[in-house]
């Protein structure tokens, strides 16, 4: 394994241990509100500290952008961390969340690690080196059209201004797709697309730490990730559509009629 991936895996597993250790004391966890429907718990912070300590020890010259501790640009390398993606699930005892760690080199994702500490599933990818689930190579399954597809999505529950556009997209996709899942962790949604458990995914207004690792997993498993206009600038806009080649094109065709100016329409 690539040495930087090795370090990221070590960091993700130790953050996962922090999360699991705390999952049987949910009623005693301290939680603060960052914004509308946006919570940070002492567990998010402790998990991020584990990751930052591990990365700093190995790569003192690299920059780190953590969801909870903010950013720091240094040199060409930047680690982008979501210590607990799916905090709402975690706080409610809904066992579906993950640790997400990506390494960017001059802004381009080079490595990604997503770890589900409940199922103990590890997803990794390196640019040009493929994507794996528990060490086995992942290749996405091609779906010809949205009619045969099981799709993942996230609700714009922190972006009420996008609700009308989103509901239009949702109704349109629901009319065509086999079914839709809203599981509550964008990082795991993307990892599941890479693994072929979902055929595609879309969400409005994500952050870099939600998507950088997962998008690389999808691309390295043979899939396509863009924003809703088909542009590769999804890390900047946070608007993400992912799927295998034909499915991705079909998904964009169903989203396009609902795009507002703010979403690139
Ligand atoms: C959230 C989850 C959720 C998605 C939100 C994200 P957090 O991350 O990925 O599925 O719908 O947009 O912000 O806050 O739990 O790290
Ligand atoms: Ca997140
Ligand atoms: Ca988080």
Protein model, in words:
This protein has 265 residues and is of the alpha+beta class. The protein is built from 8 helices and 14 strands. It has helices spanning 3-22, 42-58, 87-91, 163-176, 186-194, 208-220, 234-237, 245-255; strands at residues 31-35, 38-41, 63-66, 77-85, 98-105, 108-116, 121-126, 130-133, 136-137, 150-153, 179-181, 200-203, 224-226, 240-243. The strands form 3 sheets. The chain has a 7-stranded mixed sheet with strand order 3-4-5-6-7-8-9, with helices on both faces. A 5-stranded mixed sheet has the order 11-10-12-14-13, sandwiched between helices. A two-stranded antiparallel sheet has the order 1-2. Helix 5 runs parallel beside helix 6 (208-220). The mean pLDDT is 95. One calcium ion is lined by residues 82, 85, 210. Residues 82, 85-88, 154, 184-186, 203, 206, 210 line the site of D-MYO-inositol-1-phosphate.
Q: Order of helices and strands, N to C?
A: HEEHEEHEEEEEEHEHEHEHEH
Mean pLDDT: 95
Q: What ligand molecules are bound, each kind once?
A: D-MYO-inositol-1-phosphate, calcium ion
Basic shape: globular
- Percent helix: 25-40%
Distance between the termini: 42 Å
User: Can you count the helices?
Assistant: 8
Low-confidence spans:
none
């Amino acid at each position: 394994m690539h040495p930087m991936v090795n370090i990221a895996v070590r960091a993700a597993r130790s953050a996962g241990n922090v999360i699991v250790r705390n999952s049987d004391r949910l009623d005693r966890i301290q939680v603060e509100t960052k914004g509308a429907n946006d919570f940070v718990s002492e567990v998010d912070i402790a998990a991020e500290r584990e990751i930052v300590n591990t990365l700093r020890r190995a790569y003192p010259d690299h920059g780190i952008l953590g969801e909870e501790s903010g950013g720091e640009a240094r040199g060409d390398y930047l680690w982008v961390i979501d210590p607990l993606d799916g905090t709402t699930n975690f706080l409610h005892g809904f066992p579906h969340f993950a640790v997400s760690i990506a390494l960017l080199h001059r802004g381009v994702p080079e490595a990604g690690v997503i770890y589900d500490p409940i199922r103990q599933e590890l997803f990794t990818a390196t640019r040009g080196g493929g994507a794996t689930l528990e060490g086995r190579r992942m290749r996405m399954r091609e779906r010809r059209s949205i009619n045969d597809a099981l799709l993942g999505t996230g609700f714009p529950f922190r972006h009420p201004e996008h609700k009308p556009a989103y509901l239009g997209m949702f109704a349109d996709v629901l009319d065509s797709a086999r079914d839709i899942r809203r599981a509550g962790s964008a990082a795991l949604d993307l990892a599941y697309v890479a693994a072929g458990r979902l055929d595609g995914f879309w969400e409005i207004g994500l952050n870099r730490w939600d998507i950088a690792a997962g998008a690389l997993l999808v691309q390295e498993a043979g899939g396509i990730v863009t924003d809703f206009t088909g542009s590769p600038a999804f890390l900047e806009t946070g608007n993400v559509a992912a799927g295998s080649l034909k499915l991705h094109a079909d998904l964009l065709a169903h989203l396009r009629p609902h795009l507002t100016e703010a979403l690139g329409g």
